[in-house]
Amino acid sequence: MSESTQLLVVGVAVAAAALYVVRASWKTWFGATEKTCGSGCGKCTTPAEPPPKGRYELPQV
Questions:
Q1: Residue 8, SS3?
Q2: Which end of the chain is more exposed for a tag (fewer CB within 10 A), N or C?
């Protein structure tokens, strides 16, 4: 490989690494506003079930 080809390969690798860091930072700072647990199941974003109406059982100790 010539010196200019090696320089081009190194430049592409450095540019790819820089883009990766910029993308990761962007997603951290300006990513989704929803707070999720990260599992992707969707349970974190669903609203909680309302409490049942009527009588409530007391916890047994």
A1: helix
A2: C
Nearest partner of 17 among 6, 9, 27, judged by Cα: 9
Is the CB of residue 46 less than 8 Å from the CB of residue 37? no
The answer to whether 44 touches 36, Cβ cutoff 8 Å, is yes
Question: In the structure encoding, which two tokens stand for residue 17, read together?
Answer: 């690494």
Q: What is the pLDDT of residues 11-60, one digit of tens each?
A: 999 999 999 999 988 888 887 555 656 666 766 667 777 777 887 778 88
- For residue 44, what are the contacts with CB-CB under 8 A and spacing of at least 6? 35, 36, 37
CA gap 18, 39 in Å, rounded: 28
Q: How far apart are CA 61 and CA 50, in angstroms?
A: 25
Amino acid in the structure at residue 34: E
